[in-house]
Amino acid sequence: MIAVLVVRHGVLPAGALEATSEAKGNVLVVGSNCLAALPELLPYATHITTCEWGNFAPSAWAHALATHIGHEQRIVLPASPDGRDFAAHLAQNLQRPLYAGALRIGTITIELVRWSGQAVETLVAAPEFVATLQVGVRSIEEVSGDAVITSLQVPESFTGNDAEVVDVLPPDAASIDLSEAPRIICGGAGIQTSSSFHTLFDIADELGASVGATRVITDRSWVEHQRQIGTTGVVVNPQLYIALGVSGAVQHTSGLGQPEHIVSINTDPHCPMMQLADLGIVSDANEVLPALLAALKQRKSNA
Amino acid sequence: MPDFDVIVVGAGPAGSCAALTIARTGKSVVLIERGPFPGSKNMYGGVVYPRILDALIPEWWNEMPVQRWVTRRSTMLLTDTQSLSIDFRSDAWGDAPYNGATAFRPDFDNWLANKAVEAGATLVCSTTVTGLITGANGEVIGVHTDRPDGDLTASVVIACDGVNSFLAKERGMYPHTDAAHFTLGVKETITLSKDIIDERFAVRGNHGVDIEILGGTSGVNGGGFIYTNLNSISVGVVLKLPKLAAQSKRPEEIIAGLKSHSAIAPLVEGGTVSEYSAHLIPEAGLKMMPKLLDDGLLIAGDAAAMCLAAGIWLEGVNFAMASGMYAAQAACEAIEKENTSAKGLSLYKKLLEDTFVLRDHRKLRRAPQLVLSDRVQHMYPALITGVVQGMFQVNNPVPKPGLRKILKNERRRLGIRTTDLAKDAITGFRSFG
Amino acid sequence: MTPVIGVCVKWIGSQPNSGHEADARFAQFSASDQAALETALQRAEQLSGRVRVVSVAPAAARTHLVALCASGAHELVHIAAEGQSSSAHVAHELAQHLQECASVWCGDYSLDRGSGSVPAFLASTLGAQQALGIVGITSSEVSNTLDLLRRLDAGRREIVRVVEPFVVSVEGSLATLRRASLASTLRPTATLVDASLVSQSAPSFGEFSPFRPRPRTIAAPVGETALDRIKSATSANSPQKHSEIVTLAPEAAAQFIVERLTEWGYLS
Ligand SMILES: Cc1cc2nc3c(=O)[nH]c(=O)nc-3n(C[C@H](O)[C@H](O)[C@H](O)COP(=O)(O)OP(=O)(O)OC[C@H]3O[C@@H](n4cnc5c(N)ncnc54)[C@H](O)[C@@H]3O)c2cc1C
Ligand SMILES: Cc1cc2nc3c(=O)[nH]c(=O)nc-3n(C[C@H](O)[C@H](O)[C@H](O)COP(=O)(O)OP(=O)(O)OC[C@H]3O[C@@H](n4cnc5c(N)ncnc54)[C@H](O)[C@@H]3O)c2cc1C
Ligand SMILES: Nc1ncnc2c1ncn2[C@@H]1O[C@H](COP(=O)(O)O)[C@@H](O)[C@H]1O
Question: Would the ipTM clear 0.85, i.e. be above it?
Answer without folding.
Answer: no
